[in-house]
Amino acid sequence: MTNKTKRDFKSFIEILLISTRLGLTSFGGPIAHLGYFHEEYVRRKKWLDEKSYADLVALCQFLPGPASSQVGIGIGVMRAGVLGGILAFIGFTLPSVIALIIFALIMQGLDIEDAGWIHGLKIVAVAVVAHAIVGMAQKLTPDLQRKSIALFALVGTLLWQTAFTQVGVILLSGLAGFLIYKHHKENDKSKLFFPVSRKFGIACLSLFFGLLVLLPILREATSLHWIALFDSFYRSGSLVFGGGHVVLPLLEREFVPAGWLSEEAFLAGYGAAQAVPGPLFTFAAYLGAIMNGWQGGLLATAAIFLPAFLLVLGTLPFWEILRHNPKIKGALMGVNAAVVGILIAAFYHPIWTSTILEPIDFAFAAVLFSLLVYWKLSPWIIVLTGAIGGALLSLL
């Protein structure tokens, strides 16, 4: 074994071990994950400097998909190439995937959808999404123009609930942002380099768009359940701006109306996903396992995260050009504002309408929200409190 091979092998093992530790301990959602990454990769390991990390985060916020997972993939790529990115993803994601698949199999075996603690987990989802709305609205809609874009997205998403509504809202909001903010100035002149060629990047982007077009065609032509499952999760992972909470309405509309799983099982899993560390997109593992066992869980995970991989690897070589373009920045500002409106629509339906049924439900949601936001308790404590409280409320 040559010295270079030994160094590469050591780097691969190091990436896998560190990312797995992060995957076991990173509670709190995507913003918290970015904080964990900064502490580990920038401050402790010094794999990249502050500027490079900020640039990588900016790139992943620009792309649809799970931002924290994409940052982890990007750091792995910068450290040890494409294989390093894959190992960083596996370490960060696998712990929560395993936990949620196990939870789904227990749900199937015991038929506990109507249990009181399940309703408590649904109330947890109310508190968590409300917290996400407050934080994102403050950051992404600071002025009247972006508040108006968010309002448009909210009204459009609620009143026209079709498969194409969210995509259309995002496109129109991007156009509005482009027109309003096309002269937005950026003073950042730093540079960021990745060991990925433009040719490889073009191949990844081609595959991303190719699958987006080809999978629905195959779904209609073959009527195979596994292709339909892969298509639904791949499309959801491809069209989500704003992270895991925004994927909720896409996944809910893909599977609940079609009868693939009940709304109770869907929201119970969403509540359980708050209890595990790692990316919220691993909620797909729970859904896949509910519908098709552990094999479905693994397939759903691969399908929903594949767009994130292809987009990160596809855009890395071109990021220097894109990130300094004020017109691109303006379109992104409009899209981010629309995310807030889409999130509020998801908060109302299906979360609020199927969960807050009595005054006591609202009171308990307010308590959980306060524990999360003001008392700053860990998410796993909120989830445990929600489950216990739901069980107690069912006895009243």
Automatic annotation (TrEMBL):
List residues traversing the bilayer: 12-36, 85-110, 116-137, 149-180, 200-221, 297-319, 331-351, 363-393
Membrane-topology annotation of the record? Multi-pass membrane protein
GO MF terms, alphabetically ordered = chromate transmembrane transporter activity
Q: Which InterPro entries match?
A: Chr_Tranpt_l_chain, Chromate_transpt
Which Gene Ontology cellular component annotation is one that this UniProt entry carries? Answer: plasma membrane
Q: Name one Pfam family in it.
A: Chromate_transp
Q: What is its main location?
A: membrane
Ordered alphabetically, the record's keywords are: Cell membrane, Membrane, Transmembrane, Transmembrane helix
Question: Which cellular compartments is it found in?
Answer: Cell membrane
Q: What family does the entry list? A: Belongs to the chromate ion transporter (CHR) (TC 2.A.51) family.
Q: What is this protein called?
A: Chromate transporter
